[in-house]
Amino acid sequence: MSYVMVQMFMSDDDIMVAGEFQAVVLAAGHGSRMTEVTAGRPKCLLPIANMPMIWYPLRMLEREGFQDAIVIVADNTKSEIQAALEKCNLSIRLDYAALPPGKEDWGTADSLQFINEKIKSDVVVVSSDFITDASLYPALELFRKNEAAVTMFFLKPAEVSAGDSLPTPGPKTKHKPERDLVGINADTSRLVLLASVSDFDETLPLSRGLLRKHPHLQLYSRLLDSHVYILRKWVCEFLVQERSLGTLKGELLPYIVRKQSSKPTQKVEDASTIRGNTKNDIFQFAKESTLVSKVLPISLSNDHWGDMKGTFQDDKIRCYAHIVEGTSFGMRVNTLQAYASINREILQIWEKVTGGNVLVRLHPGAEVKSTQVDDSTLVGEGTLLNEKTSFKSSTIGASCTVMSRTRISNCVIMNNVKVNEGCVLTNCILCDGVEVGANTELKDCLVGAKHTVGAGDKHNQEFLADEDVLMEI
Questions:
Q1: Lowest mean pLDDT among 275-289, 313-327, 375-389, 428-442
Q2: Which of 68, 76, 93, 349 is the most buried (most CB within 10 A)?
Q3: 156-175: string of b/e by CB count within 10 Å (b at 16+)?
Q4: Between 19 and 416, where is the model more confident?
């Protein structure tokens, strides 16, 4: 009741930024599924339309009204990430939390444990590789009104772009996306099942008790998990004690979803005794606010029928799922295929995913002598495009040089790349510091950082890299 009264006098953005939620952006991952392009730079700084990948979720948070965010980074990449974002004109204030040296492989839950002292309220966890035009507000509203422990943010397959018909640069590989089994109560949006498809052979066991409790259960196997998780503060406190849960998606969330159907072993009257009791019992942490604990027993509201149980069926732990409806765009850029696809599509969805941010097509610091640069090509700062060159649907990064009699189409060229004269590049990704020799033809190729492609070479659907990079991969 009090929430409704407050909402009457506050805008949606005011509610979000009034200290109710803290944003946490996970940016310490090194891109284990796309090491071909992350050998030379942090994954979160991979360029998309000449902007670092992490800029997109930060821009989304700005759009939703967040004024501050904690960015979790690896210790050895903090200065590079900070320097890159300082050039992006973001208004959101960023607090960088660097993981200890040697802990770059920590799981996402481990990272959240590490910043526990910074967490003062409920948390919105966002992956640095998620790009969307969808609003977080419906998920936050679902979280609020149900006093949820966790709310997950999904998109339906129809909203997940399949990319275009061009192949992914590099050798042919079979892309087998991870698939989750997600069970959601169609009436209440309660999330009652979360597991990987690979955990089951041919049958999925569902208990009678679960089906009685949630008779309108819908099962999904092709939803996109955005890795946007809204967590109650006590969930983060529980994580500090339960060190065995190293990842959010693979361990913590399935654990909490399962715990919904359990009951507390004992009632804890004094919250100050939590750490002295059975410290790894999640129910010791799942404490409702004073207002909610007084309102629920006398509330006439109910989310189910067929029994005399109280609101939320007397469950102390509740998980929910929001599925984005409509034509919203959403993609996790966590594979090479996704990275190639988003670079082809970003100009078509730019206004939607950035909230109308100005697109710099030709940087004022670039020198463009070519007369054949189409409207779907972007050129970065300090880049020289010589005369008698042609560019179509490509992104050229900063401090690059392209010599005469060269044609480039459907390519992503990162920073400090030199393409000598007489080259033809089609549907390629060239990482930082690459040099392409004269009269070279590359089609559907991926070239690793600082590699030199020999003059006159012809390559098709290959990954070209120095031996040390190949050994690392």
A1: 275-289
A2: 349
A3: beebbbebeeeebbbeeeee
A4: 416
- CA 190 to CA 2: how far, in whole Å? 24
DSSP 159: G
Residue 230 sits at φ, ψ, to 5 deg, of -100, 120
Structure tokens at 364: 């004022």
E runs forming strands in 42-149: 47-48, 51-52, 68-73, 93-98, 122-127, 130-132
Angle at 171 between CA 130 and CA 418, to 5 degrees: 80
Q: Which residues pair with 182 in a beta bridge?
A: 194, 220
CA 351 to chain centre: 19
Whole-number average pLDDT of the chain? 87
What are 376's strand-pairing partners?
none
Helices 55-63 and 336-354 pack at an angle, to 10 degrees, of 30
Q: Which of 35, 34, 172, 165 is nearest to 461 (CA)?
A: 172
Contact, 211 vs 348, CB < 8 A?
no
Residues contacting 31, CB < 8 A, separation 6+: 37, 38, 43, 46, 334
| Residue corresponding to tokens 């590079």 | 80
User: DSSP letter string over 238-303?
Assistant: HHHH-TT---IIIIIHHHHHHHTT---SS----GGGGGGS-TT-GGGT-PPPHHHHHHGGG----S
Task: Give the closest residue to 173 by CA, choosing from 297, 36, 62, 6.
Answer: 36
Q: Which domains does the chain have, with CATH numbers?
A: 21-160+167-198+210-263+313-354 (3.90.550.10), 367-464 (2.160.10.10)
The better pLDDT of the pair 398, 303 is held by 398
pLDDT in tens, 60-79: 999 999 999 999 999 999 99
CA distances for 66 relative to 7, 14, 15, 24, 140, angstroms: 17, 9, 10, 11, 13
pLDDT, residue 162, reads: 46
Residues in contact with 349: Cβ distance below 8 Å, sequence separation at least 6, in sequence order: 133, 329
Query: Buried b / exposed e across 272-308, counting CB within 10 Å, b at 16+?
Result: eebeeeeeebbbbbbbeeeeeeebeeeeeeeebeeee
Q: What is the pLDDT of residues 148-189, one digit of tens each?
A: 999 999 998 754 444 467 899 999 887 777 789 999 999 999
- C-alpha distances (whole Å) from 48 to each of 45, 73, 371, 408 are 9, 19, 24, 17
State the virtual CA torsion across 162, 166, 168, 171 in degrees, nearest 10.
140
